[in-house]
Amino acid sequence: VIVWGCRLFTVEEFKAGKHVRGTAIQISPEYYLGSQVGDTISPAIYLNHSCEPTVLISPKAEFIALRDIEQGEEITADYGTISYDPQWRLDKECYCGAESCRGIIVSTRV
Fold it and tell me: What's the whole-model pTM score?
């Protein structure tokens, strides 16, 4: 288990772009965790999406391995699980290459 330890942002701060793009995960309807603009090191920039991820991001912002992860293997998460908004979508196609690839990166919440 890895715990995401970053700055807490309100929805308003998130929408105002006070976080480093691509580093924030929504942990409740009101709050995000992410890196603050000006941070020089953010592990979040190294986390890529996969429709068949190696980790699950829990509501407590813990990264929990879904299976054994081999040394040197990429740690990935399903970006569709990081927003409480069921209408959320990333304006990019998915090229993760997973057998179950959805082709788009959208919220998995209903």
Answer: 0.72
